[in-house]
Write a structure and sequence with these properties.
It is a single chain. By secondary structure, the chain is mostly beta strands. Helix content is 0%, strand content 34%. It is rod-shaped and about 95 Å long.
């Protein structure tokens, strides 16, 4: 038996036969038709980060808008189920993250003595 992959279709042939009243095959009703099975992909894979932990160092007293680092995630699904965005949960006011690229930047000047993350 062939395993069906959502990235492809498979074709086969179905043999249709009719039976008469005595449960015997009758040759008059034999027909063959092409059968196409399209496997529909479902969103059954979750996106995951490429690294288990990301650690970034940020120097204090830099202005807002400084790039801190980049996080990267992948979703092994086929399109359109491989689309996702990145965001903070809960939100982090000192940093922003680009929802598509994963670039993390500061949103304000960081002062080690005044701010606790």
């Amino acid at each position: 038996m062939e395993t069906l992959n959502p990235a492809q279709s498979t074709k086969g042939f179905v043999d249709f036969r009719c039976r008469n009243r005595r449960d015997k095959w009758t040759c008059a009703c034999i027909d063959v038709a092409e059968l196409v099975i399209n496997v529909v992909d479902v969103n059954d894979e979750r996106p995951g980060f490429e690294l288990p932990v990301y650690i970034f160092d940020v120097e204090e007293n830099q202005s807002a808008g400084v790039e801190v680092g980049v996080v990267s995630a992948v979703d092994r699904e086929l399109s359109p189920f491989n689309q996702f965005t990145l965001s903070w949960r809960p939100s982090v006011e000192q940093f922003s993250i680009d929802s598509k690229t994963g670039v993390i930047t500061t949103t304000q000047t960081l002062d080690h003595e005044l701010q606790v993350l």
